Amino acid sequence: MAQEDQPKHRAVREYSQLLRIQERLLSMLQEALDEIGAPTTINLLRDLRVRTGSRAPEDFGRIANSVEEAIRELKLFQSEIQNELMDQRSDISVAGVSNLPAPLARFLAERTPNERFSYEVRQDPVRGWIIAWKEYTAEGIVRGFGQFYERPYAWLDE
Prior knowledge:
4 helices, alpha+beta, elongated, 3 strands, three-stranded antiparallel β-sheet
């Protein structure tokens, strides 16, 4: 890898790490919001208010609003990071593929700087673009492999 490509590759890796962190945080916040709005939680708060006059339901309402705001902010952050990632890797193109969808292009953009990563792109009439990929260790052993589809569940509609 050329010396000038290393900072660019590092930035792509760091953007990818931020996106993974964002996904985990978003999952945790969504789980917290689901717990706050769960019927058992609502019933417990209602019982507390009736029995003790507690202000806990209002407090939980404010907490729910804060969690919803945090979710919105994380989604905005995700959008900004994805835009920056795509700006960093706008040079990703696949021969013969003029309209690769953004998620598939991002997947390739994140991984193609790794010389041990290989892939093949083909098109299926039902599932659209398919990326079959493999990643190898330094010893040449397959570390991971898989396929990504443009429309992974399209075959269920038939």
